[in-house]
Amino acid sequence: MQLSKNALLTLAKATKGATSTDDVESDGIDMQGWDGVLFFTTLALFHADNFIKAQQSSDDGVADAYADLEGSKVAATADGQVVGVDVYRPRERYVRAFIECGGKATDVGAVYAVRYSGRKGPADNVTAGVRVLASLVSPAEGTA
């Protein structure tokens, strides 16, 4: 099974840029037709108050505000680590990542969302900002 055919990669939030204390909210990811979503990013500077967590909403935060998901907080333990949270079968339709900076300055990398176990396969990874360039099965050695 090829991951690129059974998952959908989305840029959920562009990099925050310069070091600051601002929290980062990713775009809401529509889970209709998907069982799970894995969010991941990097935190340049370690601090116990810098972490990623997942939140959900029934209407992408329009009238139903995003609420934290219990147990979803993941903090880095060293500078530059990748942190992520995997939400399987959320109870609401929309899920997003929330990167808390807790007043401690850090660079937050781009936030990616990988939806998986879709009921509408195969996934089309040709969307704005995302392109699967090669999908190989038992490739021979040779010129890339």
How would you describe what is shown here?
The longest helix has 4 residues, at 3-6. The protein is 3% helix and 41% strand. A hairpin with a 2-residue loop joins strand 11 (126-127) and strand 12. It has one helix at 3-6, and strands at 7-13, 24-25, 29-30, 34-43, 51-57, 67-68, 74-75, 81-88, 94-100, 111-118, 126-127, 130-131. With 144 residues, the protein is mainly β. Strands 2, 3, 5, 6, 7 and 9 form a six-stranded antiparallel beta sheet that branches. The protein has a four-stranded antiparallel beta sheet with strand order 1-10-4-8. The model has no long low-confidence stretch (mean pLDDT 86). It has one domain (3-127): Jelly Rolls, CATH 2.60.120.
Layout of SSEs?
Elements: H1 3-6, E1 7-13, E2 24-25, E3 29-30, E4 34-43, E5 51-57, E6 67-68, E7 74-75, E8 81-88, E9 94-100, E10 111-118, E11 126-127, E12 130-131
Antiparallel strand pairs: 1-10, 2-9, 3-9, 4-8, 4-10, 5-6, 5-7, 5-9, 11-12
